Amino acid sequence: FASAAGFEEALPAVVPSTRNAVLILRLRSYDDLGSTYMGVLERLAEALLTSESKLKIVYSDPNVRHQLRASRLVELIGDENLYRSSPWRGETVRVAYEDALTWMREGTGD
After folding, report:
1. What single-letter DSSP state applies at residue 80?
2. Backbone φ and ψ of 33, nearest 5°
3. 8 near 42, Cβ under 8 Å?
4. What is this structure's pTM?
5. Fewer CB atoms < 10 Å away: N or C end of the chain?
6. Which of the 8 DSSP states describes residue 13?
7. Are the C-beta atoms of residues 40 and 3 closer than 8 Å to each other?
8. What gap in Å lies between CA 49 and CA 45, rounded to an integer?
9. In whole angstroms, what is the distance from residue 100 CA to residue 97 CA?
10. How far is CA 101 from CA 32, 64, 84, 106, in A?
11. pLDDT tens profile 77-87
12. Dihedral class, residue 29 (left if φ above 0, else alpha if ψ from -120 to 50, else beta)
């Protein structure tokens, strides 16, 4: 629980002026999120959705995907915002980043 609270405090704040933003979380080294972490991620996803923004999650362990899909988190963020890490360091985060840029451009009309 204490580490989940520290994790939540370390996340960027979603403030009233937040719009058309994307937060990419890389959950490397996690194999079991637990209900407390899932609660943190759900609250974050809800806050971002309220601000017309998105959460994208990059994970390495297939068990994490199972946990995310079993929760309501996938309903909030969409399965297309879950990214399984590739063997190449940074590659999947780059793909998520490029997808985020495309989404933000589409949202602003650029």
Report:
1. G
2. -75, -40
3. no
4. 0.86
5. C
6. P
7. no
8. 6
9. 5
10. 29, 25, 19, 9
11. 999 999 998 88
12. left
